[in-house]
Give the backbone structure.
Amino acid sequence: MARVVVGLSGGVDSSVAAWLLKEQGHDVIGLFMRNWNDASPTLEDECPWIDDSRDAMMVAEQLGIPFQILDLSAAYKTRIVDYMFSEYAAGRTPNPDVLCNREIKFDLFLQNALKLGADFVATGHYVQKDSVNVDGEDFYRLLRGKDPNKDQSYFLCQLNQGQLAKAMFPIGHLQKSEVRDLATKAGLHVHNKKDSQGLCFIGKVSLPDFLQQQLKPKEGDVILIDRDAPSVLAHVQRMQEHESVDSWVRKPGLSRSEGKVLGKHKGAHFYTIGQRRGLHIGGTGLPLFVLQTDVKENIIYVGLGEDHPALLSRALEADMAGIHWVNPSALKQVLNGEKLKARIRYRQALFDCNLKMTENRQFCTFHIPQRSVTPGQFLAVYLDEELICSATIQ
């Protein structure tokens, strides 16, 4: 049996993961990560890390396994929080959950686990893992969780082969209801604990409140763009015609000259493409959605209805770093024309796509136009049940 360090979060998923490993006869150690260490009342009062760490410790006591608290708050601030601020300031929408898994849980946490003599680290993610042999070389595959409503493979889309080699996902083959049943069977006191919402360091505080810790409010105009605005009509025509991928990834290019001022906002960097809530403008009939933001000019462009054509895209381009291959061996299948699917946000239904790769640029084209493609978020590409690669959206 192996020595496994489990990332005990104080929730039911990681607790059942630890219980299953213990039942299988592994040498299990519980490790709680403290990722936030800020005494400012706005955040600290809402952050449940103290309660969560107490729950994690109680689970470890119930299971009879060693338990430690690992303070990664300094690295978390540098690698995740500072990154968030810089991305929002630049008008992009980051995904801290993806970065946390790549930079913290399966990097710094893994390093500390190895110092404890761990053979593997385990988490309560709803994903699965197996391996294949391609041309005499073994590769690990990251597979979707069995529960389609809880599949968390998207959040692990930036892991590499070295990280997957040391990872275990004990509950990935289970439904959420089965996990709660096992927690009850095991007598774990967290069996009916609600799932955590969002990141601990934000807690129940709204994202704008959090961002205002460093990004100051700056009043600007909210511009309403009609569906028949020239730039919108040109964008629709490009999506309908069989033009180059370069043309498909072009943004609508909205301008204030073709719209009208509808109201004021408190800072373009607080908003993201496709956002509906937080505009505080009523009387428009159909709901308003953010179509585009301009942090340089501090303008938000909005449109009426979730089907506004300026929200749709036919393709996206990966950032300069290009495509990250979770399983490098899958490239051969992609080049052979295997059918691919993708998603651009967590829990989004998978859609059919194609990868287009040149020497200097990488694109993903969609069989059906997709809504709210957002720079800074991640594209995750799947081959059947396997997440094979990902990229940051440019």
